[in-house]
Structure formats: C-alpha cells, structure tokens
Amino acid sequence: MSYSVARGKLAEGVLERIPVRRRHALAGYMFIAPALVFLFVFALLPFLFTIYVSLHDWNMLTPIPTMPFVGLSNYTYLITQDPLFWQTFVNTVEFALGDVVISTSLGLAVALLLNTRVRLRGLWRAVYFMPYVTSSIAISIVWANIYNPSYGLLDGVFQLLNLPSQPFLSSPGQALISVIIVSVWHGLGYYMVIFLAGLQNIPAELYEAAKVDGAGAWHRFRFVTVPGLRPTLLFVVVVSTLSSLQVFDLTYVLTNGGPVNATNTLVLYMYNTAFNFLKMGRATAMAVLLFIVIFGMTLVQLRLLRERE
Fold first, then answer.
1. 35 & 130 share domain
2. How many structural domains comprise the chain?
3. Which of 109, 151, 207, 237 is 20 to 30 Å from the Cα of 295, by its Cα?
4. Cα separation of 4 and 184, whole Å?
5. Of 196, 299, 197, which Cα lies nearest the Cα of 242?
6. C-alpha radius of gyration, the chain, whole number
7. Which residues of 116-140 are buried (b: 16+ CB within 10 A; e: fewer)?
8. Are 55 and 70 in contact (CB under 8 A)?
C-alpha cells in the first residue's frame, strides 16, 4: 500500500469519527474562512490600529513605535477645547438630516410614479438613475459651474425671470443647502430603484382587497404600501444616513468647507487635520467618535423602523 493511499484512508477514518453535524459546521466555517480573513485584515486590524493611533500624538513622520502616548488627550481636546470640531459635527448632522429626509421622500414619490403605467417608463427610470452612476467628482464640478453667480445656468435663468442673482456656494446661509441639493440629485435614482423593487414585491391582491373594502388612494398607501415597504424603508434610511454622515467629496470639490466653515463636515475636517496639519492622532480620534455616532444612530434606526414580528 502506497503512502498516499494510506494517508487518504487515515483521513477518511478521522472524518468518520466526527459527527455529521460537526462536519457540516466545519465545512461552513471553511467556506466563510476567506471572507473572515479578508474582514480581519482589511477591516478589523485597521480599526484597531485607528484606536491605537488615537491614543498617541503622531505626525506621520516619526516611526510608529516612537510616537508619544497621550491617552485620552485627543478626545478631551476635541470635546472640550475645539470649537471647530463641534461646528463641523453640527454641519454634518444638518447635512445628513436634510439629505436623508429629502432623498427618501423624493425617492419614494418618484418610485410610486414610475411604478404606474406612465409613457416611456423605462426611459424615465434610466434618466433618474443616470446621475448615480456618474462620478461624484464630475458631478461636483458641473454643479459648481451651474451655481456660479457670474455665468452659471441658474444665474441665467434668474436673469430671464428678472430675479436677483443668488450667491449659492459663496453664501454661508445658502452653501449647505446648495450642497444638499447636489447630494439629493446624485442619489435620488439609487433610492428610486430600491423603492421600485420594494413596491413590486407587494402582492397586487392586497391592493385589490383594499379597493373592494372601499379604501381610497391615501388609505391604500398608508395601510398597504407603507407596511409592505417597511424593510425597504429601513434599508434606505440606514444606508442614506451612513452615506450622509461620511460626506466628503461633494464638500471638498464644491466649497472646500467654506465659506467660513459653513459646509465644513466632520470627514473633511478630519482629512485636513491629518494631511494638512499632520495631527494623525487627533484625526483618528475624530474617526472613532464618528464611528460611535454612526453606530448609535444605526441602532436607533433599526429599533424604530425594524419590521414588526
């Protein structure tokens, strides 16, 4: 008997001694092992390193083993001594609230409209979805020209209507709203598609039964559409919130945080702190605080919007 045959029989004997349920469990763990390794290397380890750096004072020039340990000083400074941190935090929350509410409402409204038998329905769906597949940097550059108070498209429309020109991105009172409009326009098509998928999963028999019972359009929407869209609504709200709280590219290209920090978001401030001021410890502390806020808000949303058993 050759060595390879003997080794194969030995392996078969070992497997036979393992209960069937354990063998199935072992096979499952082996299948997910590559994904677990990927998550460990590219997600968990960087997160733990972020926490480690946030407890030190590192300028990215000194070697990592020699960076001074400062404990919670970075967190204490951000929370108690840095007014710009709180301003960027408020800007981020305001942006997220506006973006989530408007995107969710308009996405659902457009999905309801395009779920009916309108003419050229497929074309309209493609038109609404097209901005989402376009680079956000390219969209930001285009909208920066649209908003331009001297030669922008909106300025030309206002002149035709004999209305005064608006500063838009150069006004502290209008800049954040202008950025929210761009974000809504960019993501509307994606949320529309998600809502369309949810609407098409609602059985038509429910609407027919509601009509037989004399329910009007509003009551059908309230008691049939909304309960049927609860899982979809949960997904859209959570995803849009996560995306909005981490906004960076739109504010970086459109305003670079201006004017007077009116659109300076937390991630943009984090970027400038790390790569312009070389305070990586303080920047990673912001990242950890942002993670805590996002994690907490996600738990609250899951609690409030999860589907009832």
1. no
2. 2
3. 109
4. 63
5. 299
6. 26
7. eeeeeeeeebeebeebbeeebeebb
8. yes
